[in-house]
Structure formats: structure tokens, C-alpha cells
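In response to reviewer comment 3 from the previous cycle, which asked for concrete evidence that the modeling workflow produces usable outputs, we include below a single protein chain processed end to end. The sequence was submitted unchanged, and the resulting C-alpha cells are shown without manual editing.
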Amino acid sequence: MPVEKINLRTTLVLTRDDKFILLPNSLLTKQKIVNWTHSKNISRFEVDVSVARSSDVELTMKLIKEAGLEQKDVLKDPDPFVRLNNFGTSSLDFTLYFWVNNVFRVENTKSAIRVILYKKLKENNINIPFPQHVLHVEKENIEDVTKE
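The workflow returned the following C-alpha cells.
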């Protein structure tokens, strides 16, 4: 958040959502502050995606990285990379890690990556799973519930 104005007791900062926050200076001096771009103008971000367990892992990772590289705001250096982070209940869970200069508009960048990625996955018949639950209901239990 860029600092807009520092006063004796408060500091005015602008958020990534173009909203102003008035912070008491005591918060800034007594609590941990995260500065994404203190020493550099770039910062790393992530986009998560889950695909069906039957998906080709290497192809999926290739498509995810391509989606990142095709988005104009994603920096080519450092090179974006993809990790298979988890085996979900009904999915393989991946994360694209990438760097941008414009940290204040990164949510737009993430959205654009997701749109590109969705098209790539669809073109390659890779499905994004939806949660599935199997319920086993015994007839006698249903009758008991309806009597109450």
C-alpha cells in the first residue's frame, strides 16, 4: 500500500482496491508490517488450480505455465513456475507462481491468467473437478425421520 500522507498521529495509505485507510502510527511502530516491495519493485503471487485426478500431470503443468507466460503483466524474469501441491479428494492441486511489477493490479492479472488457463484446459480436455459426495441412505432411517 503506498503511503499517501504521514501525520503526527496517523498515516494515510491507499490499498490495492483504491481505498484509503487511516492507520494510527502506533500500529506501524508496534506491529509487524509486511512490505511486498520494500527492496524491489516486483513481487511474487500465486494462482491455484485443481484438475481431475485422471489428468496428465506434465501436460497440465505445461499449460498452467503457458497461461502465466501469455498474460502480458507476468514477468519473464524471474521465470514463472508450477508446483503440484497436493492430491485433493477428487483433484490434483497445482499452483502457478509468478512475478509482476504492478502489485496494485495483480487481481486483474490473476483473473486474466485464470481465463487463459480455463481455455487451455478445455482445449486439451482437462477437466476442473467439482466436489462430489456419495450418500448412502437406508430406507428404515428415512421412515424414522418422516415419522417425527
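The radius of gyration is 23 Å. We consider this sufficient to address the reviewer's concern, and the full set will be provided in the supplementary archive.
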